[in-house]
Amino acid sequence: MQFLSSKAVLYLRIIGLTALLFFLLKSPTSIFNANFSLLLGQAMRLPTVTVSNENPLLGLVALFVFGVALSDLVPLMAENTQHFETLVPVRLGFFFFLAIFCMISEYGPIANNIVFTYSFLEIWVNFVLFTNLRDEKYKRAREFLEKHGDEMREMANERVRPINDDE
Predict the structure, then answer these.
(1) What share of the chain is helix, strand, coil (3-state, %, to 5)?
(2) Where exactly are the transmembrane stretches of this chain (predicted)?
């Protein structure tokens, strides 16, 4: 049984990305020095990222985060569930492989505590979304069959014709 609907989880994801965007612009050291990120990075033996507040790349990262949040908000407002049923498994796979790459690689720009923490959180959110979307799809299919099941059986019976073996 679901605790939150997929819409609620998507809205929470958008709110989380918006909060990340705000902190990237106002106080980036609070993100890079967060206890959870440092602890998770040390547990996985990943290098720790140190960034100053004046780093110009943080603006680019903030724009990327804004684009990701906006790309979730527009289909969510249009109630396009097929978009998310297609996109969430792809995201889940991508961030799963990114987290694995962080753990087995020593490539500093990608294999660090911040990328791994973000990948870890995306895996968790997308897994919750995937299971919720699958349950909601099952419920929609069950309701459709309950409503139109008799009509579908009649149409199927009209199309079924016995084969004559007179030859």
Answers:
(1) 75, 0, 25
(2) 57-78, 90-108, 114-133
Residue 1 counted as domain residue: no
What residue numbers bound the domain in which 32 lies? 6-157
**What spatial distance separates the first Cα and last Cα of the chain, rounded to whole Å?**
56
pLDDT score recorded for residue 166: 64
Nearest to 129 by CA among 77, 90, 71: 90
Residue 1: predicted pLDDT: 58
pLDDT digits (tens, 9 = 90+) for 61-95: 999 999 999 999 999 999 999 999 999 999 999 99
What is the three-class DSSP state of 55?
A: coil
Domain tally, the chain? 1
Tell me if 164 is assigned to some domain: no
Residues 29, 35, 39, CA angle at the centre, nearest 5°? 125
